[in-house]
Amino acid sequence: LLWRYRLMKLGTIEGGGTKFVVGVGDENGNIFERESFPTTTPEETMKKTIEFFKDKGVEAIGFGSFGPIDPDKTSPTYGNVTTTPKPGWSNHNVVKDLEEAFPGVPVGFDTDVNSACLGEVEFGAAKGLNSALYLTIGTGVGGGAVVEGNLVHGLLHPEMGHMKLITRPEDTYKGKCPYHGTCFEGLAAGPAIEERWGKSAKELPADHPAWDLEAYYIAQALCIYILTISPKKIILGGGVMHQKQLFPMIHKYVQEMLNGYVAKEEITTDKIKDYIVYPGLADNAGLCGGLALAKQALKNK
Ligand code: ADP
Ligand code: ZN
Question: Quick one: pLDDT at residue 3?
Fold first, then answer.
């Protein structure tokens, strides 16, 4: 039993716009306990979060947050949720809340999708790779990426769900994004599917034409990421991707659209089914991502 004492006790937070999931786990991606509550005001939500971790004795905490956020450690507003329309959260500093409650405990902080991407690299479908892309297609569309071993940030952080896509000629839907109309999220997130077809995505049968159109848009976006960041693995998560019949359709469209140009067998052959995949951690990608962020924060301490 001695080996048990060498395991780290790490805290993880999957901070979503709808709900928060908090948990305790270890550096191998095991989750020992978890709790979930709705996202209300920042004060109330962070108080519940802090109460959960109170007597847990975690060595570090990782926080994957809904956004946009400020993940730049050199910025005076590092740790903020920035321009969200969610009442009260705009400019609220969640990292400060945690650091004040748990002095000396390092906090890792990143976007929910960067966190999930790191989780998949550390423990999941991209384990052992230094390059991966993680996309969530759910209430919104977001992407996180590891490139040459590091999570991608920059001026802000990637917002991969808001690229304008070329609509299919027969698709006259105006798009759901208030900023861009027919961007990826505006065309393909759960609410867009629901508005276009008048039925929730969950209720559409597997052979409904909605899924062919959905695969077409997802593939179009994936081609852009393949051509820009050249990920070694693409992981597609989020509620919409529970529709597993999307995968072979996405594989086919990506091959057609790239038209042999990226001449790697991962793309041009049947191996594409191991290149564009469902999360290895299934619906635990977010929580495991927080563990990976916590682990990283401890290492960088
Ligand atoms: P969130 O993005 O809020 O974290 P989800 O990833 O679960 O949460 O995404 C919710 C969206 O995914 C909803 O719009 C819903 O319609 C859609 N969704 C959830 N489950 C399914 C399913 N089994 N099939 C298709 N769409 C689904
Ligand atoms: Zn948009």
Answer: 57
User: What's the confidence (pLDDT) of residue 7?
Assistant: 85
- Between CA 163 and CA 8 the distance in angstroms is 40
Is the distance from the beta carbon of residue 150 to the nearest atom of ligand 1 less than 6 Å?
A: no
Distance 76 CA to ligand 1 centre (A): 35
With a cut of 60, say whether residue 240 has pLDDT above it. Answer: yes
Which residues lie near ion ligand 2 (Cβ < 5 Å)?
Answer: 162, 177, 179-180, 183
Number of Cβ atoms within 10 Å of the Cβ of 291: 32
Instruction: Note the ligand closest to the C-alpha atom of 159.
Output: 2
**284 CA distance to ligand 1 middle (Å):** 15
Cβ(121)–Cβ(292) below 8 Å: yes
Cβ of 13 below 6 Å from ligand 1: no
CA dihedral 150, 153, 159, 165 (to 10 degrees): -70
Is 1's pLDDT higher than 70?
no
Tens of pLDDT along 257-295?
A: 999 999 999 999 999 999 999 999 998 999 999 999 999
Looking at residue 8, its pLDDT comes to 92
Ligand 1 atom closest to Cα of residue 243: 24
267 CB-near residues (< 8 Å, 6+ apart): 226, 254, 255, 258, 275
Say yes or no: CB of residue 18 within 6 Å of ligand 1. Answer: yes
**4 has a pLDDT exceeding 60:** no
- What spacing in Å lies between the alpha carbon of 238 and ligand 1's midpoint? 6
Are the CB atoms for 225 and 233 separated by under 8 Å?
no
Q: How far apart are CA 271 and CA 86, in angstroms?
A: 42
Find out whether the beta carbon of 245 lies less than 6 Å from any atom of ligand 1: no
pLDDT in tens, 90-113: 999 999 999 999 999 999 999 999
Q: Determine the angle formed by the axes of helices 190-197 and 209-229, rounding to 10 degrees.
A: 150
